[in-house]
Amino acid sequence: MSDMSDTEDQSTTSEGKFDPKRHAREQHNALERRRRDNIKDMYTSLREVVPDTNGERVQASRAVILKKAIETIEKGHTESAALSAEINQQEAKNAKLREEVFWLKSIQLIFK
Protein backbone atom coordinates (compact mmCIF):
# COMPACT_ATOMS: atom_id res chain seq x y z
CA MET A 1 0.00 0.00 0.00
CA SER A 2 1.25 3.54 -0.73
CA ASP A 3 2.03 6.12 1.95
CA MET A 4 -0.99 8.17 0.93
CA SER A 5 -3.47 5.31 1.31
CA ASP A 6 -1.92 4.39 4.67
CA THR A 7 -2.41 7.96 5.85
CA GLU A 8 -5.94 8.04 4.54
CA ASP A 9 -6.78 4.76 6.30
CA GLN A 10 -5.43 6.11 9.61
CA SER A 11 -7.35 9.39 9.18
CA THR A 12 -10.67 7.68 9.67
CA THR A 13 -12.40 7.21 12.97
CA SER A 14 -13.41 3.84 14.39
CA GLU A 15 -16.83 4.42 12.80
CA GLY A 16 -15.19 4.73 9.38
CA LYS A 17 -15.66 8.51 9.09
CA PHE A 18 -12.92 10.77 7.76
CA ASP A 19 -11.42 12.97 10.52
CA PRO A 20 -9.87 16.13 8.98
CA LYS A 21 -8.06 17.12 12.19
CA ARG A 22 -6.49 13.70 12.51
CA HIS A 23 -5.56 13.76 8.83
CA ALA A 24 -3.93 17.19 9.22
CA ARG A 25 -2.00 16.02 12.28
CA GLU A 26 -0.78 12.91 10.44
CA GLN A 27 0.30 15.00 7.46
CA HIS A 28 2.17 17.38 9.76
CA ASN A 29 3.83 14.49 11.61
CA ALA A 30 4.96 12.92 8.33
CA LEU A 31 6.35 16.25 7.14
CA GLU A 32 8.16 16.80 10.43
CA ARG A 33 9.59 13.26 10.30
CA ARG A 34 10.99 13.92 6.79
CA ARG A 35 12.46 17.24 7.99
CA ARG A 36 14.18 15.55 10.96
CA ASP A 37 15.49 12.76 8.72
CA ASN A 38 16.90 15.36 6.32
CA ILE A 39 18.64 17.21 9.18
CA LYS A 40 20.03 13.91 10.46
CA ASP A 41 21.37 13.08 6.99
CA MET A 42 23.00 16.51 6.72
CA TYR A 43 24.73 16.08 10.12
CA THR A 44 25.99 12.70 8.95
CA SER A 45 27.35 14.26 5.76
CA LEU A 46 28.97 17.07 7.72
CA ARG A 47 30.52 14.62 10.18
CA GLU A 48 32.09 12.75 7.27
CA VAL A 49 33.85 15.82 5.86
CA VAL A 50 34.89 17.68 9.02
CA PRO A 51 38.29 16.50 10.27
CA ASP A 52 39.08 16.13 13.95
CA THR A 53 42.09 17.89 15.45
CA ASN A 54 44.14 14.73 14.90
CA GLY A 55 43.14 14.48 11.25
CA GLU A 56 40.60 11.76 12.04
CA ARG A 57 36.91 11.90 11.26
CA VAL A 58 34.63 13.29 13.95
CA GLN A 59 32.35 10.75 15.67
CA ALA A 60 30.56 12.99 18.11
CA SER A 61 27.42 14.84 19.08
CA ARG A 62 25.77 17.37 16.81
CA ALA A 63 27.14 20.23 18.90
CA VAL A 64 30.69 18.92 18.52
CA ILE A 65 30.17 18.40 14.78
CA LEU A 66 28.99 22.00 14.38
CA LYS A 67 31.86 23.30 16.53
CA LYS A 68 34.43 21.40 14.44
CA ALA A 69 32.78 22.64 11.23
CA ILE A 70 33.00 26.25 12.44
CA GLU A 71 36.65 25.76 13.44
CA THR A 72 37.43 24.25 10.03
CA ILE A 73 35.74 27.13 8.20
CA GLU A 74 37.51 29.74 10.34
CA LYS A 75 40.85 28.01 9.74
CA GLY A 76 40.15 28.04 6.00
CA HIS A 77 39.36 31.77 6.10
CA THR A 78 42.58 32.47 8.02
CA GLU A 79 44.66 30.42 5.60
CA SER A 80 42.96 32.07 2.64
CA ALA A 81 43.71 35.55 4.01
CA ALA A 82 47.35 34.60 4.61
CA LEU A 83 47.67 33.22 1.08
CA SER A 84 46.06 36.36 -0.38
CA ALA A 85 48.58 38.50 1.50
CA GLU A 86 51.41 36.32 0.20
CA ILE A 87 50.09 36.65 -3.37
CA ASN A 88 49.96 40.44 -3.00
CA GLN A 89 53.56 40.49 -1.72
CA GLN A 90 54.76 38.29 -4.58
CA GLU A 91 52.93 40.42 -7.15
CA ALA A 92 54.56 43.56 -5.74
CA LYS A 93 57.95 41.84 -5.81
CA ASN A 94 57.37 40.75 -9.42
CA ALA A 95 56.41 44.29 -10.43
CA LYS A 96 59.60 45.63 -8.85
CA LEU A 97 61.71 42.99 -10.62
CA ARG A 98 60.05 43.79 -13.96
CA GLU A 99 60.93 47.46 -13.48
CA GLU A 100 64.50 46.48 -12.70
CA VAL A 101 64.71 44.27 -15.80
CA PHE A 102 63.29 47.09 -17.92
CA TRP A 103 65.80 49.53 -16.44
CA LEU A 104 68.72 47.14 -17.02
CA LYS A 105 67.65 46.53 -20.64
CA SER A 106 67.38 50.24 -21.27
CA ILE A 107 70.88 50.82 -19.83
CA GLN A 108 72.23 47.99 -21.97
CA LEU A 109 70.78 49.66 -25.10
CA ILE A 110 72.37 52.98 -24.19
CA PHE A 111 75.87 51.48 -23.86
CA LYS A 112 75.76 49.50 -27.13
Automatic annotation (TrEMBL):
Keywords: DNA-binding, Nucleus. The keyword Nucleus applies. Transmembrane segments: none annotated. InterPro entries: bHLH_dom (IPR011598), HLH_DNA-bd_sf (IPR036638), Tscrpt_reg_Myc (IPR002418). One of its GO terms (cellular component) is RNA polymerase II transcription regulator complex. SMART domains: HLH (SM00353). GO terms for biological process: positive regulation of transcription by RNA polymerase II. Residues 1-38 are annotated as: Disordered. Residues 23-76 form the BHLH domain. GO terms for molecular function: DNA binding; DNA-binding transcription factor activity; protein dimerization activity. Residues 16-38 have a biased composition (Basic and acidic residues). Belongs to the MAX family. This is CRE-MXL-1 protein. The gene is Cre-mxl-1.
